[in-house]
Design a protein that fits this description.
alpha/beta; Rossmann fold; 6-stranded parallel β-sheet; 5-stranded parallel β-sheet; 29 helices; globular; TPR-like_helical_dom_sf
């Protein structure tokens, strides 16, 4: 709504324009998540961080989408008679200054009032002008005028919309929702949905806001309305304590820092606030800077937020207490179990060497949230902290939890599939049996997200095509690309990096304007390490020499093993561990389970609600949890059922299935939760399974896993079948 007077002195009424303000306004959310943006100074904020009296935002350039009333054309006698009767019964309403005339109202809005008799139309017009004048500085009085207009013209859509917007700005959430629903029914537009969703937030119902955002009409919004809905959804995610999902929600928008104006400033501010709530402080500072640069009209308080974050005391007060430091995570630990159920061969323990001064001892041993490290003195950067994502309560985040969604196939509940490669689609030179057919049966766009940095995207796509999958280079997101991007973030163009890896990795580095060397004698500013079958003592020694001389260290991934058709070979993580042992340093990690690769995949795919699919708990599934996404674990690669039963919370998937055919099955078949017909009893280290005669065998594994997690098993339990039904079902799983 344009709440300012035009150059001709006319009030524009409460009508949406194309400026795109509103919703999750300038990063608003709960007060403990970050403040809303500034509108004409520093208005008061309520306990939710919403700006009292801020200007409404959700406007489309189409006035009919703005909830305009009936088409023009004369005064209808029946409407005139009804409104006269209403006017006689209505109280006089708040006083209106004599200098306010009906002609002060925008002509388009006045035409919506032609269904009223002349006296009533003039009175309503004057009240609407007063709403426009008062909305910012005195929202309570503006609401009184909006109510007076509504009492006289309750059948005019633009009047009901005005009443809804005024109630919204006065923080009368229930009244706002009632009026906006009425305006939507009368006008037939979905453009009011973002405002309605944010009113649901005001009522303390963020889950309903998300339902509106993710419903069919919410997803069908386009342009400014679609962006506004994403802003509201992000705010609702923060309300629910899901800041990582707020980050993901906004990553599908146009986050081009070169854009300027009110709409980009608000979007950047919202994204910065979500990053801050997620504990990604350095990233948040970057986007507050982008918001301040874009904010030509000073509608946000981005500059003040930057000042606050520059104060260490304030920064400490406003960011989560780190239980992990992202810079310290590098290599998997040795607590997991192998596919065979014994001690792991898929992770390598780094000896207890000296930890960098800015790292905590716990952080040095925990790779699950790594995406930053403490760089060398000549490339300094603060360590970034991240609050671990808690996926133990799957019903809160899993869209397949309701009955309607559960009846659909698993894939149909998501917009994009983010697929791992090794162990999920293929092993070495052979496709996993049934994988090509399974993917051909689902309609979702597929993006291939791999920790393997040895090949370039066009090579990966060609290999996938050879195996029968449909793939283009644009659909392939590699840890080599992300590692190169991190180099570009930390170094200046023209600086040099020592590459430990294939020529493909070296070319990715060159393409971000960083020079390439293979020798520590060239005094590189950084080392980037990715998988190569040709890596040996000489290459690892060059890396150690450069790192010890002060070079920044980036590891493309820390997978300790690499699945092949012959079994598990040595992976990049094992070679990273050798360098870590020799230097006492830990790298920045680009690939899963760290956030950077997942962030790049989300941005590349434009996904709003993707499903991560993979075979490794410590990389694929942990990576999904790091950025707050749902995941499907398939049993075709590294991690086994035994691993899954004893999985730590940060390694737990949302769904589990034997292979990719699970994508086409009803979602409730794979969702990890108790299942009808199956009784799971846990006693000590023994789990007993019994099934009714009609129990669905495909649901025993999710039910078994749910019971093991509920019991808090730290190691794989013994499993006993009670009855033939259970024995057959467990036998099919190799248990």
């Amino acid at each position: 709504m344009d709440d300012r007077r035009g150059d001709d002195g006319k009030g524009r009424g409460v009508r949406r324009s194309s400026d795109g303000r509103g919703g999750f306004r300038a990063g608003e959310g709960r007060s403990d998540r970050g403040r809303g943006g500034r509108q004409q100074g520093r208005p008061e904020r309520d306990e939710r961080g919403r700006v009292s009296g801020s200007r409404d935002a959700r406007r489309g350039s189409d006035r009919r989408a703005a909830g305009g009333g009936a088409p023009g054309g004369g005064h209808r006698d029946d409407a005139r008679s009804a409104e006269r009767s209403t006017d006689r019964r209505a109280p006089s309403g708040p006083p209106i200054p004599d200098d306010v005339t009906p002609q002060d109202l925008d002509g388009e809005i006045r035409r919506d009032l032609l269904t009223l008799d002349r006296t009533t139309a003039d009175e309503v017009a004057r009240h609407l002008v007063m709403v426009s004048r008062l909305l910012i500085d005195d929202p309570e009085r503006a609401l009184l005028h909006a109510r007076a207009a509504r009492q006289r013209a309750a059948r005019v859509a633009v009047v009901r919309e005005t009443a809804g917007v005024a109630a919204y700005n006065a923080q009368e959430w229930s009244e706002a929702l009632t009026e906006l629903r009425a305006a939507r029914r009368m006008s037939g537009t979905s453009a009011l949905l973002p405002l309605m969703a944010d009113a649901e937030r005001g009522l303390g119902r963020p889950e309903k806001a998300i339902d509106l955002a993710r419903g069919a009409e919410g997803r069908a919004l386009t342009g400014d309305e679609a962006t506004e809905m994403r802003l509201v959804e992000a705010g609702a995610r923060i309300d629910l304590g899901e800041p990582e999902k707020a980050v993901v929600t906004l990553q599908g928008e146009d986050l081009d820092p070169s854009r300027t104006g009110t709409a980009p400033a608000r979007l950047f501010y919202a994204y910065a606030s979500a990053l801050l709530a997620a504990g990604r402080v350095d990233d948040a500072v970057t986007w507050f800077m982008n918001a301040a640069a874009a904010d030509l009209d000073d509608v946000t308080d981005a500059e003040e937020r930057l000042t606050e974050l520059a104060d260490p005391a304030t920064r400490d007060d406003r960011t989560p207490s780190p239980s992990r430091v992202e810079s310290a995570a590098a290599v998997p630990d040795t607590d997991a179990t192998t596919a065979g159920g014994g001690e792991t061969s898929t992770s390598v323990e780094v000896p207890d060497t000296e930890v960098a001064a800015d790292q905590t001892p716990d952080a040095a041993q925990d790779p699950t949230t790594a995406d930053e490290s403490v760089p060398s003195d000549d490339v300094s950067r603060d360590a970034v902290v991240r609050t671990p994502v808690d996926h133990t309560d799957l019903s809160v985040t899993d869209p397949t939890g309701d009955d309607a969604s559960a009846e659909k196939s698993l894939a149909a509940n998501y917009d994009v599939l983010l697929l791992d490669l090794d162990g999920t689609l293929y092993a070495g030179q052979r496709a996993i049996p049934g994988a090509t057919e399974a993917l051909s049966e689902v309609d979702n766009p597929s993006y291939y997200v791999t920790n393997n940095a040895s090949r370039r995207p066009d090579e990966v796509a060609a290999h996938l095509e050879e195996l029968g999958f449909s793939a283009t280079a644009e659909q392939v997101v590699t840890s080599a690309q992300t590692g190169a991007r991190l180099l570009a973030d930390h170094l200046q163009p023209g600086q040099r990096a020592l590459v430990v890896g294939t020529d493909g990795l070296a070319q990715e580095v060159r393409e971000v304007a960083i020079g390439v060397t293979r020798s520590a004698d060239d005094r590189p500013a950084a080392v980037i390490q990715g998988h190569s079958p040709d890596t040996g003592w000489q290459q690892l020694s060059e890396a150690a020499l450069a790192i010890n001389a002060g070079a920044l260290w980036i590891a493309c991934n820390v997978d300790a093993t690499l699945p092949t058709e012959r079994g598990f070979a040595v992976g990049n993580g094992s070679m990273v561990a050798a360098v870590a042992n020799a230097t006492g340093k830990q790298p920045i990690v680009a690939g899963k389970p760290a956030a950077p690769l997942m962030d790049d995949a989300i941005a590349r795919s434009g996904a709003r609600n993707p499903l991560v699919v993979g075979d490794r708990l410590d990389t694929d599934i942990a990576g999904a949890n790091t950025v707050g996404l749902d995941s499907l674990m398939v049993l075709t690669g590294v991690s086994s059922v035994a691993d899954l039963l004893a999985a730590r919370p940060e390694h737990r998937p949302t769904h589990v299935g034997p292979d990719l055919t699970t994508l086409s099955l009803p979602a409730d078949r794979s969702r990890i939760a108790p299942a009808p017909g199956w009784t799971i009893e846990v006693s000590g280290d023994v789990i007993t399974v019994r099934g009714d005669d009609d129990a669905d065998p495909s649901r025993v594994l999710p039910a078994l896993v749910a019971a093991a997690w509920e019991a808090g098993r730290e190691k794989a339990p013994q499993i006993r079948a009670d009855g033939e039904r259970a024995r057959a079902a467990l036998g099919d799983l190799g248990l």
